[in-house]
Amino acid sequence: MIFNDEEDEKKKAAQKPDALAEKFLKTRQILLSGEINKELAQAVNKQLLLLEADGSKPIYVYIDSPGGDVSAGFAIFDMIRFVNAPVVLVGNGLIASAAALILLAVPKERRVGLPHSSYLIHQPLSEMRGVATDLQIQAEEMAKTRALLNKIIAEQTGKDEKQVKKDTERDYWLTAGEAQEYGLISKVISSRKELAGMKIK
């Protein structure tokens, strides 16, 4: 019986709104941190929609993620583009794989990075399983996803698509300065003042 009571308390605690998180959300800021998966995409998209309903002022998203599920990444990517409020993306820590995709959801002038942020672009990782025919279908879908990712990177950075394809053959790491040169971000910032001084269209 004691165990049941403890379990109920844990469930109630999980259902209670996080006061700190609610207060933070009122500042129109979102932390996109950790592995990108269905749960994170749902949480981030919910916050984006709530902030859009709350007004048209800019929304600031801080990305620190090793990447994860590409489909979940696209769910966030599409939602950022869907909402009316302008979104500013700030690279903070590691921005890798699907996280780099999300970074490219906004125009270049709304993509910035902190001094020690690092970036990784590469082809989508495969976890193909099943019989031969299924593996062939999965391989074809993987090729489509890779082509789409390369196209997005090329369009949003101004790089030639052939160059992007070559770069993403293997893990392609960039420092904040290199990411700026590559076109993943528009500039490197080191203070709140610089972020607040950005002209957002």
Number of strands: 7
Helical stretch count? 9
Distance between the termini: 58 Å
The secondary structure category is alpha/beta
Radius of gyration: 19 Å
> On the 0-100 scale, what is the average pLDDT?
89
Q: In which range does the helix fraction lie?
A: 40-55%
Instruction: Report the β-strand fraction as a percent range.
Output: 15-25%
Give the tags.
9 helices; seven-stranded mixed beta sheet; alpha/beta; 201 residues; 7 strands
Report on the structure:
By secondary structure, this protein is of the alpha/beta class. Helix content is 51%, strand content 17%. It is built from nine helices and seven strands, in the order ααβαβαβαββααβαβα. Strands 1, 2, 3, 4, 5, 6 and 7 form a seven-stranded mixed beta sheet that branches. Strand 3, helix 5 and strand 4 form a beta-alpha-beta unit. It is globular and about 50 Å long. The model has no long low-confidence stretch (mean pLDDT 89).
